[in-house]
Write a structure and sequence with these properties.
It is a single chain. The chain is mainly α. It is 56% helix and 5% strand. The protein is built from six helices and two strands, in the order αααββααα. The protein has a two-stranded antiparallel ribbon. A hairpin with a 5-residue loop joins strand 1 and strand 2. Helix 1 crosses helix 3, helix 1 packs antiparallel against helix 4 and helix 4 crosses helix 5. The model has no long low-confidence stretch (mean pLDDT 92).
């Protein structure tokens, strides 16, 4: 399960992707529009900036904006920044591998074998899903919802 911090971070990135060509966005506007506590959001955005996902501009007309185009930022990158490795257990992590102390034989450990498959599929999906892909999914979901509403009228 992702943390509230990660969920807010992803919401902020989607919001900034929607406004990609509009210049920097004020934290106050983002916090208000996405209903994210401003102080909490400030720390999240600073973390994403320090890792190169976001950039910021100070002063009048300042705020935060994506450091790269939406099609070059994946959910996997963002989640790793906010949560750390995707692996559900340390013995299958590619970034933070650690042997499980209670495991006698990694090669035949059933838990490890299944959790590696889980990590691999999570990585495949999250690393293969860009912010641009998410915007497209949101747009398609909105269109389907409008079709349902039109049908009901």
């Amino acid at each position: 399960m992702i943390s509230k911090k990660t969920k807010y971070g992803l919401k902020a990135l989607i919001y900034l992707a929607q406004k990609y060509d509009r210049g920097p966005i004020l934290i106050a506007d983002l916090a208000r529009d996405e209903r994210i506590p401003k102080k909490f959001l400030e720390n999240i955005l600073l973390n994403l900036k320090n890792c190169g996902i976001l950039q910021s501009r100070k002063g009048r007309g300042g705020g935060y904006y994506l450091g790269r185009p939406p099609h070059k930022i994946t959910f996997g990158q963002a989640i790793r920044i906010m949560e750390g490795p995707l692996a559900p257990v340390p013995c299958v992590s590619e970034m933070a591998y650690a042997r499980c102390t209670e495991c006698g034989n990694e090669a035949t450990c059933g838990i490890r074998l299944v959790m590696k498959d889980v990590r691999d599929e999570m990585a495949r999906i999250l690393d293969g899903t860009t912010l641009a892909d998410v915007l497209k999914k949101v747009e398609e979901a909105g269109a389907r919802q409008e079709d349902v509403l039109d049908f009901c009228i």
